[in-house]
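sorry for the late reply, my laptop died twice this morning and i had to redo everyting from scratch. anyway the thing you sent over, i finally got around to it. pasting the sequence first so we're on the same page, its 102 residues, then the predicted structure underneath. double check i copied it right bc i was rushing
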Amino acid sequence: MVTFIQDEATLTLMDNREILKAHGFFENHTRLIWINRSRRIAFTEDVIDDHDRRWLESKLLEDIPEGEFRLHSNRPLAPKVCMEILDELGLSNLLPVNPSRP
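ok and here's the structure:
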């Protein structure tokens, strides 16, 4: 009998990406970030890797104030990088907010 074991970290990674896909996110492979333009929110690969599904789901439930775009990452993103991402999305009129993990 063959038993397949999937470690918890791999399962969490798969779950988080599936959750993002189900919520209309697309992956930007160049910037290693998952983005949802209409919801005005993005998650870097590192923050997805380092958090469980409950954390991600709680962030997806947050209200994003009008005029803001939320960029979740483990470390602060340079303001220039945030603006470049918004420019690429055609959303340069929004204020980038990067509530990085402490």
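The chain has four helices and five strands.
thats about all i looked at so far, will dig more tmrw
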